[in-house]
Amino acid sequence: MPGPDTKKLAASLRAFSDQTRIRLLMALRQKGELCVRDLTERLRLPQPTISAHLGILRRHGLVRARRTGKQVFYSNDKPQLGRLRKGFDDLFPPKPRGKRRRR
User: Fold this and answer.
1) How many domains does the chain have?
2) Confidence of residue 1 (pLDDT cuts 50, 70, 90)
């Protein structure tokens, strides 16, 4: 039975091991697409910190970047996040929901 690519899954999960990166992913989920300046204001962190964490998320394929002039806009890579979720679900399948028996 084929399973998830555990090496890729482990690398992607390491990208989630930082509170700032989780906050970035959440902000992008809420707004869809934001530039670094918007993210610095929203998270109240310095630009170099935001840029460093976005770089990690990009290397792991969790966010996409789109350049317009001098600005770079970031968004979550929904297909990649979906594959990550599927890999996690393959490792730890949700328990089937059945009818609860009354006592």
Assistant:
1) 1
2) very low
* Distance of alpha carbon 95 from alpha carbon 76, whole angstroms: 28
**C-alpha to C-alpha distances, 35 to 32, 75, 87, nearest whole angstrom:** 11, 9, 29
In a domain, 102, yes or no: no
Task: State pLDDT tens for residues 61-84.
Answer: 899 999 999 999 999 988 888 877
**CATH number of residue 66's parent domain:** 1.10.10.10
pTM exceeding 0.85: no
Q: Which residues pair with 75 in a beta bridge?
A: 64
> Does residue 98 belong to any structural domain of this protein?
no
Q: What is the mean pLDDT of the chain?
A: 85
Angstrom distance (rounded) from CA 32 to CA 41: 16
Q: Which domain holds residue 45?
A: 6-91
